[in-house]
Amino acid sequence: MFQSFFTLLVMWALLYLPDSPRWLLMRGRPEEARDVLARLAGADIDSEEVDIEMQNIKEALEVQSRGGGFKMRELLTNGPSQNLRRTILGITSQFFQQICGINLITYYATYVFENSLGFGPDRSRLLSACNGTEYFLAALIAVPLIEKVGRRKLMLFGAFGMMASMAILSGSSSTATINEFGAPVLETSYGVVATVFLFGFNTMFAIGWLGMTWLYPAEITNLRIRIQANALSTCSNWLTNFLIVMITPPAFTNLRYNTYTMFAVFCACIIPTVYFFFPEPKGRSLEELDVIFASANAKGINPVKHAKHMPKLKGRELDEEIVKYFGGDIEEVRRQSELRAASFSQRAGSVSQNH
Where is the signal peptide (predicted)? Predict the structure, then answer.
């Protein structure tokens, strides 16, 4: 019953969240879209910055609407948009969130403390409650770091920390002896180490993977495929969640402490995959990400490396890149850019005269 309070709190907060400016433009509500962009940028609604962003989004939406209605087979094709690659990145990120073993801890914390680390029932429940509280607080650490540090660095940091935590859990748990009741018994020092790194695993996950894998698939896919691609990535998350929940009890029965070893190996596999295949979206608009994938494909280079070195694009420069890779009238883009600049200069002149 108490948990319902937080559900109601989230539902109330959702009423005050602004709609996506891209969604508003797709629904023919440009003034509302402009207002949202101005608030996000902390700029005046008639500023050049907002004008440029509006034009970039309109150009991208126009390009993506040329293909007619969406078809599911688009998710299985690459081409300039690299839809298949981007869909796989979203699915993989959600798969990694679960295969790392977080729900071994989240769902089975009391069982782990009692049947793997050898604590009594009451202490196991207390530690489980503390673990959940610590997990919530650790998640807040990522909030100011996501845009400052970047998605890739946090995911790599989290994966390395989770791998190390699982490896140490395995090593410390391997020293357990079995008493006459069939329960594991750890020396106090090993029990403390195992408990610290179980909490440490939760911390690393909360910082690097808890919220990141819901943000990353939404950023990395373009507007045309975002709904369907994110549906598949979410499906990947829950199917892997189900798998982990089902295999954990028999894994502890048969593998015992090597259950942690297994998940340490899974976490180790995350590190090179993120490093070599996951581009960094930090500081990029969604339209810039479209250009990153398209230009990397055209040049035959890795989007990860390209995202790192490609300069920031906006305004006319971004419009021209969109037209270059996705088609359109480059002269019309330039004409619109000149008109926009003239319009802004005229408004700026009017404001200065009024003052």
Answer: none
